[in-house]
Structures are given as C-alpha cells and as structure tokens.
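Much of what follows relies on a compact textual record of a protein's fold. An example makes this concrete, so a full record is given next.
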Amino acid sequence: MKCYYKILMVLFLVSTGISAVRAQTTFARNGVADERGQTYALVNATVITGSKKIENAIILVKGKLIEQVGSVINIPKGYRQIGLKGKYVYPAFIDPYSQYGLPPVKFPPRSNPVIKREQIDPARSGAYNANDAIRADYQAVRDFRIDSKIAEDLRRQGFASVSAFLPDGVVRGTSVVVNLGESSENEVVVKSEGAVYFSMDKGSSLQDYPNTPMGALSLVRQTMYDAEWYGQFDQKPFTDLGLEAINSQKSLPKIFESSDWMMAQTVDRVGTELGLDFIIKGSGDEYQRVGEIAGMKRKMVIPLNFPKPFDVSDTLFNAAISLQDLKHWEMAPMNAAFLAKAGVKFAFTSDGLENRGEFLDNVKKAVAAGLSKETALAALTSIPAEFFGLEDVLGGVDAGKFANLIVASGDIFEQSGSIEEVWVQGESYRVTSKPDRGTVRYTVDKIDDSPKMIYPFTAYGTSEQVKPEDLLIKGATVWTSEQEGILSETDVLIQSGKIVRIGKGLSVKGVKIIDGTGKHLTAGIIDEHSHIALKSINEMAINTSMVRMEDVINSEDVQIYRALAGGVVVAQLLHGSANAIGGQSALVKLKWGQTAADLIIPSAPRFIKFALGENPKRSKSDPSIRFPKTMMGMEQVYTDAFTQAREYEKEWTRYQSNAKNGSGIKPRIDLVNQAMLDVLKGDMFITCHAYVQSEMLMLMDVADRFGFTVNTFTHALEGYKIADELKVHGAGGATFSDRWNFKWEARTAIPYNTVLMHGQGVVTAVNSDSGELMRHLNQEAAKSVRYGGMDEQEALKLVTLNPAKLLHLDDSMGSIKVGKSADLVLWSGHPLSVYSKAEKTLIEGGIYFDLERDQVLREEIRLERNRLITKMGNLKNQGVATVQYSSNLPFEAECDFTGMEEYFEENH
C-alpha cells in the first residue's frame, strides 16, 4: 500500500504543463479546462515538522502536493510567491476518530413501541451476520459526503484530514480517510478503507444480545472465531457478508473504543487472546494507571475532553460531588504528559468534545501541563498518519506529501499562537478569527507539580498501594476454623503473604508487631454470591455462558472498601439471574487499590451462574416472548445445551482424528458449547440461583443424566426440604440467613435452613447478594446461633471455611492454618457479636483495611475535597465558565432486592 502511494505521488510530480488534478481526472469537462495548475512558493516561514525547525524556509507547492522544502531553493518561474515572514508553518492535523461527512446513526423503532418485547433474531434484511451489531461489511466511503460547515469547523482547529467512520455496532466496518477540502468526494478521499472500528456499544441494533460490555466482548470473540472458520472454505456453506468483510480486512488497522482505563485493559486482554493488534481509543483517564497502560504496549487514540469546573456556589449540593470527579477535573489535562513520559505512542482526537472549538485550546492545556511540543505535534500529525499507513502522504511538511499545512501567527502551542490559514491539498482556507474571550485565560497544573495520585482514584484511595508485610499478631483469641478450634492468647506469624507459625510466645526479629490482646483473629470472610465491583450484571440471551464477569470488573468500586471494613476478603462476582444459563464468574480477592487483573485469583477454579425460578422464565415480564416461559422449558434449555455440547465434543474428536491424516476442516469454535462442555468435563462448576425444592431436584436430575454434579445452589431457601437429596448428589447450599417473603417463590423460607442443611452434612454457607449485607456477614452467620442453636465455630465457618470449600479454595484460604494465605480479620471483640468491628483486614499479609487509618483517610478526603472545591470557586469568581454537576453513580445490583421492577427486568 505504501508503494502504491509513492507511485501516485511520482505521477503527480512528473506531470508537466498539466495540473495534477487535471491529469488524474476521468470526469468530462463541460467548457474550457484551466490546465495551468496551481503553483505557489511560501517564503520566509518558520517551518516546524517532526523534530525539525527550518528558519526562513521556502515551501514549493504544486497542485495538491508539496514539491520542495528548504531554506535555499531556487523558485521556478510562474510560482506565485506568498510572504510568510514571522509566520509559523506546521503540518496540518489528522483526526483518527471522526464521524465527519457521514449520516447520523438511525435507530429503528421497535415493532410495538408501547410494549418492550424482546427481539431475538436480526432485523437487517440481506445476507448479513446473524447479529445486527456486526456491521463489518459497512464501508464509510460509500456514504461519505463533503460537509462544508463541519469541514470549516475542523479546519479552524487545524485539521486537514480525518478518518471518518460510522459509530454503529460492535464491529463497525471501515472508515474512509479524507482531506477536508471542498472540491468533490472523488478529489478528497485519500484512502477508501482506513481502519476497522470496534466498540462495546451495539448501536442501532434492537436485538437483545448484546446489551452489556461483557456481551459485546463475547460477540467480538465469537465473531472473530467465526470468521476464521468461515475463511477455511473455498465453497462457503452459506453467505455472510460480515464474515467475508472481516477476512478481507485483516491487514487494516483496528481501533477499539474503551470507556475507561479499566476497559482499556480488558480490550488489551481480548486483543491478546485473539491475536489482534488493537489500537485502543482511550477515555482520558489513563493517567490514573499509566504504568499498567504503558505495560500493554498498545498504540492509543486519546481524547482531549477535559471536564469543566463545577458550579460549587451551593455548599449543600457540593456534598454530592464525588472526590473522583473533583480530582479528574484537576488532573485530566496532564493525561497526555503522563502517557508520553511512560512511553505510550498516541494520537489525539477531537472526539468527545461537546464544543469542537475547544480542541486547540485543550491541546495547549496539555502542553502547559507538561507535554512536550514535539510530542503534541506528533500526536496530531505523524502518528495518526502512521496508524493508517499514510506517512508517505500525510503528517509532515515534506516533498511528495499533500500540501496540508497550518499557517499560524506564532507558536501554535502557546496561548498567544493562533491559526490564520489551513491549506488542504494545495488550497488555502482562511480561518475566521475567534471572538474575543476577554482577559481570563486558563491555567493548569503541571505534571511535575502533580497533585497526589491515589489508588484507587476515588475516596479512601491511598498514595501508596498496599503491599504484603511480614507481621506477628500477638496474644489474640484465634478462631482457627480447623480441628484445633479456638486458641486463646495465641500468636500468628505471617511472612511472604502466608501463615507460617501459630503458637504462644512467638518471637521473630524484623517483623511488624500487631497487638492482638483482647481481640479476636479469624480467617477472612468469603462471600459466595456477590455483584459488587461489576460494570454490568446481566446479559440478555437464552444461554449466556460465553460471557465472562472478569471482562467487566470495576476495581474502583467503593463497595470493595466497605466490604473490607466488614472483614470480607474474597468474593465470587456473579452474573445475574435473568437467564437459565448465565455467564462465567470472577473469583476475586478484594485488593483495594489494585487493578482488575490483580484482583482475580490466579488459577482459581472456574464457575458459571445458572438460575431457576421466576427470574429466568420471566414471570414478571408479561409481553416476553423469550424461551423458556415455564419450568418445563427450563429443563429443556439445560437438556438441549448439554446435548449440543456432547455433539460439539464429537465433532472435534472426529476432526482431531482426521487431522492426523492431514485432512478435514477445523470445526467452528463455539464459545457457548465450549462452556457447556467444560461443565460436563468438570473444568467449570455450576452455582445455581434457586429457591424452590422441586426446581433444584430437576436440575440435579439433569446433572445425573449427563454425569456431572451441581456444585452449589445459591439462595436455596427450600434447601432444608431436600437436604438429604443435596447430600447424596454432592451439592452445597449458600443461603440467606433470614430473608423471605420478598417474592412468591421465597414464601416458605425459614431461619433454620442453614442448621438443617448443615445437619445433613451439606456444605452450607451464608452469602450476601448485596453490597450492604456484605458488610456484616459475620452477623448474618451469627443468626444461625440465635435461631438454630448452631455451634459458634460452625457458624463462623458459614462465612469462612465453608464458602471456601464451595469455591474449591479451601486448600489456600478459609481457615487459620500454617501454609494458607494470610487472609485474616482482627476483630475488636467476639467475631459473631453485633458490637464487634473489623479493626484490620488482611489479604496475603497486606493490610487493606485498618480502622485507625480509616479515620485518617476521612480527614484527608475532607481536606482534599475542600481544596478542590475552593479552587473551582476561585475560578468562577474570575469569570471562568462552570457547569452543573451530574452524578453517574451506579445503582446497586442484587438478584431480587432492588425494589425497582423496571430496573429488575433490565438488569437482573
């Protein structure tokens, strides 16, 4: 492709006596053609291109192209000279993430706008993909039309080229790279297919799947595997224009949009899995984890959508402004400088700006915050040109490149510098001067004077990330949850994240001493059923076994810190209960301040969420058309899924046999069937949302027929009725302590459920399914003592050792035993007392919650908030425009207790 453009440029330059435009056109002329061509000599300019600065430069422009650049050039006859003494000339900017010249995305109405019914099948007519969100076949070049008004707005900010794509779908098809001239579409198109664009937003598709980021990512995975399979056939089994397009686009760059730095890490992981070199379109918050972002070694497209200061005149309302949003306002302009310092290669985009006219000012803010001018210019010119393989024709002031230039009054990266002209393909466009903005100018903090970074970047974050320590806890009452029982006045030694010694009178040099006198030490609490720290909960399809909760972990969720304050160290983050077969769980340690990847327990067993009852059969969705609608249908969903998985296994077995003989088409990788097969093979375990005994018996019968075991029934409010059957099958029960009557299928629950199941030998746990309940699971366990007279040590196991057993993690956690992970809680008193508090919560020897430090953090939060609010108030007093604050705090997710029917239907 580069060679093609070099040849094209030579053809332009060797055309003598005839303009480059005229030489290349195939259009008929109605009248006399002007074949003289446009030739200019821009003289006495200061040219800035790349890292070069040429004083008193001469730029020869012939037709669309730069013919020659230098300080000593003989100007040929016939060239019109334009004096630019005192002016600066730069290569014009390139926006790699634009919708310029394309129609708005059209969102079709549902067939019945009054009743929101599911749409399972695609609505797009034609030989397209089975999912309407796969629009890989779309080519922006076919819809591109010059838009003079927007082109003028973009030129005013220094742009002469953009890569324009239609933001519709998960796989969005190809962009068109165009120059911002106004001659004709044929003349301004530089590259008809610039890049392929990806997103986690399905756009105009009305199909239910996908409706979450994790579903979109699963769809991308499956579609790429489908394209690989489809590409093997000479004679295609069917026509899919989307898969054909994907296979034809393999050599094109691929740009994937992310909503924040956490999702950027997820995109990176998906790209690695699929072997795709994604360029990641960031969100502007990458500075918060710049080390991790740099570690991805991905190219990026970075927006400059800096938040405006909030109107803080209402002191009562200010309490609603989150510390995260306050700090982001202050530090967002430093983002590019942080990335550059970390060695990340990035291009800038104007995408995300409500007012496109702020772009250049925001570039200047980024420079004022510490970004070098050279890096800023590269991010606007040479780097985006390189992204699209157009560095031979765009992105610099060099011979052979398009004459796309900025003529400025001075240094364009200083506040005083302004654009006077933008040249596009050798044609000059005057830039209308901006209205007077008064005497108030912006000021920004610099990266070198950076405000304190905290981990996580929210309330209760700390300037230093928690690290494991060697600790000796002295003289505590130790609840081992092992056969040793409760040990009084006992010491526990922690080294390298492990429990290494337990005994009395231990003395070790070089370790930190924690006085446990009068206090109680237990294993950390483990929550078998939680939905905290997730960006989405329910994907809406009959079988969503292909989605992974690890794709949407929100490591910045303050509920992690709150859970630590209640002594919780581990949680299973589950898919919701909207589907008979839900998504794959994430087993995490609540390492506050670490990234999602750091939270995930290495080599943890794999789990998947199933669901029985009212939720998956959609009892409360009268207009629902989605199968299943009855319990008979529920059983058939499971039977079909496992039957198909067996057939899938046979297909791969046949292929592997044929492959030994060098023959056979590789079968399609089916992520749904693969997940079901993993359950059958014992490589993934089921935790099943259930209430009613008959339904639990049904699923155990299905499991017996297919030769596997249901690992856990979670909620299991009627587990006491079939405790003997649970024991025979080998299923455990993770239940509520005393919640019932919140829905019809929960009406027969009793507070003796844990005691009765435990008495039959069923591994029994108490879980939360609630960010609020999670904070006092120790008290939930204590209710089994109150209601059923359970032994105190056995009651504590309901939230420590037993959930560890259910999650197959009991070899490394859940009790206090030499060799196990130092995941511990030091309580102020008896661990089952409502009056006791978690004073210290440890994970692998790191103190992730400390009651005394909590008080210090609260004061730091108060002072930091006051500082930032005062800073914003001062700017308003100086006349700087402010905006009203709007919170985007997520609604807390549980399976059944939201109290909002519509929210329940959409998310649970």
About this structure: The radius of gyration is 32 Å. The chain is about 30% helix and 20% strand.
